[in-house]
Structures are given as C-alpha cells and as structure tokens.
Amino acid sequence: MRALQFGVLEEKTLGSRAVEAMLSHLSLSLICVLGLLNTHTQGVEHDTRLVTSGPLVHPHLIGCRSSELATFRCWWSSGTFSNLSEPGALSLFFQMKTITPSEWQECPEYTHFTQNECYFSREFTQIWKTYCVQLRSATLKHNITYDQQCFTVENIVYPDPPVGPELDAAEHQSFRVEL
C-alpha cells in the first residue's frame, strides 16, 4: 500500500514540476512580450517615414550560439527601421543572473567582420549561469529596449559540423556503393 501511495505522490510531484516549468516558460514569454509592448506605450513615437515598405518589423534578437561551451555569440536584426540599421544604432547589453544579479553591461566585443554580432570571450562565459541579453537603442530622447532573451550557455551549444570528413572504403569491407 505504501509503495502505491509513494508512486501516486511521485507522479503528482512530476506532474506539478512539469506545470511549474510550463508556467515559468510562459511567464518569461509574457515578460518579453510585455517588454516589447512597453516600448510602444510609454509615449515613444516611431517615425513611420524611417520604416522601409512592407510590414513593420521591430528590432529583435536573432539568437545566441556557442560551439564549444567556452565562448558564445549573439546576433540581432534592426528589422524594418532603417534609422537603426547603421552600426552602433543598436546595442546589446547582458546580465548574469546569480543570487545577486550583476549589473547590466554592454557587449564586451562587437565583431568587425559580422554586422550586428556580439562576441563573449572565455572571460565573459560561464556555464550553468543564466544570462539575459537585451537589444537597446539610445536616442537623445529615449532609451528603448526592443527585445530580451535569457538562456544558459549549455542550452545554446550547437557544435560546428566536421570539416573535410573522409571515408576509407578499403578499411570498411562492408561498405559498397550500388548504382
């Protein structure tokens, strides 16, 4: 009887953990959406003449990626706002979430060979820590945050594909090509 009760309790605990994880994810998504809406409800007027034709696309983060857990890069787009497409018009800020979160800091190194890219060297990269990045523009009148994403480095690892793999067919007797 006790094992059955424990199994039911364990099942309820796993179910409640799944619900908590889902609510946490939804909360983060809602915070990001409200942050985007907030940029338009604080009396900030965007000059529609500075937007290229077609649907309005706000500046946004494209994503962050690490190929080896030791460094990572983040990319963004200026969207259809032509006045924000010049280098330096948008800035990336980051914060490490710890027991006492760090202050927001600007990107440690904007890369010169790729537009709209920030590089985080080994000095700025720690695994198992949560990072939040914000895409901001600073004008004379307003400091606007357009987008925010939070992640841990181990969750953005996408290893580079192998370069120049070779297959020695003589070593693999079972290898054959049928035409």
UniProtKB/TrEMBL annotation:
Keywords: Glycoprotein, Receptor, Signal. Pfam families: EpoR_lig-bind (PF09067). Residues 58-142 form the Growth hormone/erythropoietin receptor ligand binding domain. SUPFAM superfamilies: Fibronectin type III. It comes from the Eukaryota. This is Growth hormone/erythropoietin receptor ligand binding domain-containing protein. It comes from Tachysurus vachellii (Darkbarbel catfish). The lineage of its organism: Eukaryota, Metazoa, Chordata, Craniata, Vertebrata.
